[in-house]
Request: fold
Amino acid sequence: MNIIEIKNLSHRFANGEIGIDDINLTIREGEFVVFAGMNGSGKTTLFRHLNGLLTPSGGSVILDGISVADDPKRARRMVGMVFQNADSQIVGETVYDDVAFGPENLGLEQAMIAQRVSEALHAVGLNAHADKRPHLLSGGEKRRLAIAGILAMGSRVLVFDEPFSNLDYPGICQVLKQIVSLHHAGHTILIATHDLEKVIFHAQRLIFMKDGNIIQDGAPDDNLKEAERFGVRTPCATHFGKEPISWLT
Amino acid sequence: MADVTAFSYLTGASALHKMDVRFKLASMILCSLTTVKTQFAGLFFLTLVLGIILLYIRFPLKTLIRELRYFSVLLLFVFIARSLSAPGLPFIKLGFVTVTYKGISDGALVCWRLLNIVFTGLIFVATTRPSTLKTAVEWWLKPVPFIPEQRVAVMISLMIRFMPVILEQARETADAQKARGVENRKNPFYRLKKIALPVLIRTFVTADELSVAMDARCYTEKRTSMKLTAGKNDWLILGGVILLCCLMVV
Ligand SMILES: Nc1ncnc2c1ncn2[C@@H]1O[C@H](COP(=O)(O)OP(=O)(O)OP(=O)(O)O)[C@@H](O)[C@H]1O
Ligand SMILES: [Mg+2]
Reply:
């Protein structure tokens, strides 16, 4: 079943710059997809159409049968997004408040919100920090907080924009483990990155973007070797003719 | 990063922590208003009470002193301005400026009042979770026409959330400029311009990113807000505060 269907999607910015250009793409429920491409290739722009943060200049995005343009609120509930900059998406004054922000916007009952927040914090292992101020968390913890924030909204599709930027090795492992376990729990996962090394072992599908277009789409085994043609470094193991290995072992 | 100021919540379980924020807010405003009206005797009494409360909620003395360092400079200015401007019996005469007895006592009174207000504010902030504060403000604003109380509440919580970020960015920018020798430039206006512009720009960018992130999480003004419940204790404390205030004004 296709949870995301993108048809002839284009976006032109106010200054005339083309962000993405005539993209066609379908994604099945439960897929783990990595979008790779150079800086400025249009990954962020594409992602922002999935929950209606940007309005297409042409084409449409259909989520589980209903167009994003018809019901942006549903799209935002369905597609949770973790942004490139973890700091700027913290809304609450405490970890608890921040996770509660989404459910509060959905107008849920207090008791329901409390339950969802505690479940989400448990899922990312931050329940001990509920009363802390988010700015005092480490980089990896901040990312996991952002993940908890979208889990509490009950999103089925989780979109990560450069989830590993600025993280140290333990931070990367924490976040990666989180993402992989969410995938096992049945979420559809979309990751944008220009660094394949860290995720590719877990991905089922690898899409290359360049200048606002999708130029290669397939299983990582098949198209990983070509990465450098598109300005993305191939993982070390591939250089030596081996299979990629997980960062979690 | 961001260990910021004394003006922040201290986790705790004192009676003041548990008090209904609506009552606490009213008490704080009452205390501050009374302070402006009282004379030395009342101020002395109030300072005593506030001091005991500060000890009771275990306010860290070190932060108090560190934070009041800057504030005391302001107080000094107020004091000097006051003592120079009041007419009356001269205390000392330096050239063409005269310091009067009345000036000194006026200055001391004003400074003491300001200090008491700051203490009241400190106690309030230290014992109040920001998210409940916003709920209380929302509650008080509800009967006021033409004020969208939900929007005000969100604005308050964003302000609280943004303070540490802006301060941190200002500090970072200042450090980066020091590293490039900005201290060699003696013109304070030049330095102000060089620090204010980048900090402002960064703040706006952050605000922009934040608003997109809020949108992504379905931000609306019709949100679930926290329920506040008032108990017997809240009425008791409020009653006590009102009594105290009346006594001090008389
Ligand atoms: N607000 C904007 N106004 C004008 N042009 C923009 C805007 N945002 C992005 N662009 C342009 O659109 C193109 C795609 O940008 P996008 O941010 O989607 O790339 P990206 O793949 O996410 O890159 P990165 O890896 O740096 O995050 C770039 O050429 C960029 O300059
Ligand atoms: Mg990007």
User: Anything to note?
Assistant: The longest helix of chain B spans residues 149-179. Chain B has one domain: 15-249.
